[in-house]
Amino acid sequence: MSYTNKLQAGGAFPAITLSDLDGNAHTLGKPREGATWQMVVVYRGRHCPLCTKYLNQLETFKSALADIGVDILAVSGDSQAQLEEHQSRMEVSFPFVYGLSEVQMRELGLYVSLPRSEQETDHHFAEPGLFVINEQGTVQVVDIANNPFSRPDLQTLVNGLTWIRNPDNNYPIRGTAPY
């Protein structure tokens, strides 16, 4: 039996800093370029064609997310060499960081899987996770999955974030009722 520590909606997002292929450090949950929120998308790695498809699809929503002040950052446990190879198949302009450790995966409350073979990958990897962190560094939206087939529909997600970001709606962080 495995144990995962799920991040709580409304809780602080952990400070994890990783590098992109240009050597720039990115702290997960810290928006860039004038954005006030950040969407952190954890993907399984270069071995996952569904991840590649999802991330390429996310690129089509980058402008709509920027319009509502949401930055995008993608992260995996892949190595630098694996990310370099994966980037050759990607059509995205948002940053990718690499080297998420198994300890960090578990800190984020992600499900962690073993590779089925060496052809898949050479390390434990995180199953998909998506976090939206607000300007206070608080988890506004969290979605984690234990397989690549269960992810939020991007159009629905962007529509929802647009609703949440509209101050006229005064929409609170959901899922915070005490036990």
UniProtKB/TrEMBL annotation:
It comes from Enterovibrio norvegicus. Residues 7-163 form the Thioredoxin domain. Pfam families: Redoxin (PF08534). PROSITE patterns: THIOREDOXIN_2. SUPFAM superfamilies: Thioredoxin-like (SSF52833). The lineage of its organism: Bacteria, Pseudomonadati, Pseudomonadota, Gammaproteobacteria, Vibrionales. This is Redoxin family protein. InterPro entries: Redoxin, Thioredoxin-like_sf, Thioredoxin_domain.
